[in-house]
Amino acid sequence: MRETRDWYHGVFARLSGSTPDAPGARVAILAVEGLFLMRINGIDDEGAWADLLGDVETTLRHLAVSKSADLE
After folding, report:
1. Residue 67 carries which DSSP code?
2. Can you tell me the distance from the alpha carbon of 37 to that of 5, in angstroms, rounded to the nearest whole number?
3. pLDDT in tens, 34-71
4. Are 43 and 34 in contact (CB under 8 A)?
5. Which InterPro entries match (predicted)?
């Protein structure tokens, strides 16, 4: 359990910035974790998690494109 906690601490430490995109990245990570729990616990038998995961991917791509534009 300690390794898992350390991993999460590391992830959130890397996403702890105050840039405009940081909150969106943190929300995306939490969304993926929620989808994972829904799937492994059988809450989402219909498979809607895959569509929702696509929404998260779209959000992350948008953040990445936004960051790339800021660096230019």
Report:
1. H
2. 16
3. 888 888 888 776 777 788 888 888 888 887 777 666 65
4. no
5. TetR_CgmR_C
3-state secondary structure 1-65: CHHHHHHHHHHHHHCCCCCCCHHHHHHHHHHHHHHHHHHHCCCCCCCHHHHHHHHHHHHHHHHHH
Could you give the angle at the alpha carbon of 49 between the alpha carbons of 2 and 47, nearest 5°?
125
Nearest Cα residue to 36 out of 25, 52, 59, 12: 52
Among 29, 3, 31, smallest CA distance to 14 is for: 29
Structure tokens at 4: 């898992």
Cα dihedral across residues 24, 30, 34, 40: positive or negative: positive
The SS3 of residue 72 is coil
pTM value? 0.64
